[in-house]
Amino acid sequence: MKLNLEDEKISKLLWQLSVPAILAMLSGAIFNLVDRIYVGKISSYALTAVGITMPIQIIQMAFVLLIGIGTSALISIKLGEGKIKEAEDILYLALKYIIIFLLVFSIIFMALMDQILDWLNISHDVLPYAKDYIAIVIVGSIIGIPGYCLNNSLRSIGQAKLSMKIIVITSIMNIILDPIFIFVFKLGIAGAAIATVISQTTLTIYVIVIFIRRKDLIIGLKFRKVSNEGQLLKESLKMGLPSFNVQILASVVNLFINNSLLRYGSDFDVAAMTIISSIYSFYHMVITGLVQGNNAICGYNWGAERYGRVKKSLELTLAYSFIISLLLLMVILIFPQLLVRAFTDELPLIKATSEGIRLYLCMLPLIGLHTISSQYFQVVGYIKRSNVLAFLRYGIIIVPSVYVLAPNLGVMGVYLSNALSDGIASIIALVYIVYELNKLKKLEQSLTDHHT
User: Any alpha helices (H) in 304-397, and if so which ranges?
Assistant: First the structure.
């Protein structure tokens, strides 16, 4: 392993792991932004189609994260415990089961596509765009998504730069292919979906080849019979469960929000929310990159019982997240139209989105704290705490808030409900994490006293 996760200075190690992960996430976020910018140039209906079918992709990604995040977290812990063979077995199981799931999911979706799209209450104007887009993305994911699952494991073994390189290359490929398939080949929104699938497939092939051929990695992809397959799979799924819950809840909430926007507004407001979500995803990718660096350090050192290093990494990650979040909030409050204009030239849509984003994301500095806390509890095996934080932010607060506020405030009530949910859930996360930091301090002191 090129990076010494157990002895290197935490501040240096965190940036060595996080900066490449942040750059990788940023490139992925930029790809999503550019993709939606191109789609927005087709029509506002096409942009709405991407947004309104998002719950389907979120549900699919829930199972990807259940396997991908769970296995990568368990790999970190196994490496900290010195169990390299088990770490390799977990890597193989990640690839095996993600392919099985994606195949089953695609078959079910294609068989029920008309009923599912009808359930989403998609208007007649938007429906043709939605069908063209989502069918290609879901079927293409069978060969496109497994690479993202395994790429999490690259970061968990300290190969953040390599992970970044792969994502940047394939994101640039997508950005180049988008206008070619959309405008040159005149495939419209289907062209955007095809470009996405091609770049995803390239990433999958790249990651698999690396894990098979690179001999300098601490673990490799070994296709062999796993004697304790059931137990390792059970442990991995348990650790990935909070990410799964977040995605499922996010999908339900996303569907609920879209329906609320249609009820108290129109397709126009769904398009505005799609733009807001795209801008938020850019921020979320940055925080996720920071979290992934922290998770690799915390998972490994938790397994090695180096609790003082876990505490230091967690504290620094929380501080960096707050600073980044505060800076972006200032940009959103002062220059919202500058961000929104990248997605659309329609002045009414620019005005509505610029007003909504200020309210929708006003709790941004606290959101990062919530994300880091939830992910930390997951990676060290405190699944119940992670689940509690997920349910608080994605459902328990926002749904009743919309029912109370939206009838009186309309679309702005929907935006305000999200801000309330983010704020309250994050304050509770702060209480949890302060308690955890004190606990880590006591654990480290106890080990020090024992050795002396």
Answer: 307-334, 336-340, 347-360, 364-379, 383-391
